[in-house]
Amino acid sequence: MALRRLRADLHIHTCLSPCGELTMSPRTVVAGARAAGLDLIAVTDHNTTENAAAVIEAAAGTGLAVLPGIEMTSSEEVHILGLFEAGTDLGPFQAEVFRNLPDVPSKMKFVNDQVIVDAADYVTGFSPRCLFGATLFSVQATVDLIHGFGGLAIACHVDRESFSIISQLGFIPPGLKLEAVEISSRLTVAAAESALGPFDPLPVVRFSDAHKPEEIGAATTEFFVAGPSLAEIRRALAGEDGRRVIVS
Predict the structure, then answer these.
(1) Among the listed residues 158, 131, 156, the one whose alpha carbon sits nearest the alpha carbon of residue 146
(2) Are 4 and 222 in contact (CB under 8 A)?
(3) What is the 3-state secondary structure (H, E, C) of the chain?
(4) Which end of the chain has less Cβ packing within 10 Å, N or C?
(5) Is the CB of residue 193 less than 8 Å from the CB of residue 199?
(6) CB neighbourhood size of 193 (10 A)
């Protein structure tokens, strides 16, 4: 099977994330990704997958592939990226996340900033929860939950001074079965490894963590794969059968 390069940004927020701009609607995200020359993106809102299907539908027929995903916050306030295969029924997964996401006083909620939309950018609702809060899942339990639904688990922006596995724990626990670590757009892989040490044997990726349209594609990773599926991304991260990761 012939392999090809796919330029990917697998850490993008929509208007559902409390820190995402309201302009990050499905059609805007798709348009921004296409303008940035991306082949593959993932929708990774904080503690929710509820806008992913709308972005997948908005991208239909455009040539842009979209994976559903999530940026989960563990009880230690570590951010873990979960990526899933398109078409996966994430209803039970989302129910489990919400069941373990404590509610907060109404005055602390971001109701007006957590917008659920459809593929045509019409507002269909608002999430009443504080999606930016920490779940009751430990880091290990977070990774296990993602894996339990067939997903890939990636430690987010490990070079950041907050909400990263290194800032919160000081290290990556032995035996934590991550598929990769992510470097933020502010650093190169070489600079991050110089500051934090090598991440071997975990592969390193860079994504934008976009919260605004202009940030989409600001940091990307190229995957040398047969196609834009989660299965192929998994094989590339594992370096199987000629698949590989090329960090820009």
Answers:
(1) 156
(2) no
(3) CCCEEEEEEEEECCCCCCCCCCCCCHHHHHHHHHHCCCCEEEECCECCCCCHHHHHHHHCCCCCEEEEEEEEECCCCCEEEEECCCCCCCHHHHHHHHHCCCCCCHHHCCHHHCEEECCCCCEEEECCCCCCCCCCCCHHHHHHHHHHCCCEEEECCCCCCCCCHHHHHCCCCCCCCCCEEEECCCCCHHHHHHHHCCCCCCCEEECCCECCHHHCCCCCEEEEECCCCHHHHHHHHHCCCCCEEEEC
(4) N
(5) yes
(6) 16
| Of 188, 187, 155, the residue nearest 172 (C-alpha) | 155
Q: Does 196 have pLDDT greater than 90?
A: no
Distance CA 32, CA 20 (A): 14
Report d(CA 195, CA 161) in Å as an integer. 12
pLDDT class for 111, splitting at 50, 70, 90? low
Q: Quick one: tokens of 120?
A: 């045509």
Question: Which neighbouring-strand residues pair with 73?
Answer: 79
- pTM, entire model: 0.95
Alpha-carbon Rg for the chain, nearest whole angstrom, is 17
Higher pLDDT, 186 or 61: 61
Cα separation, 123 vs 101, whole angstroms: 23
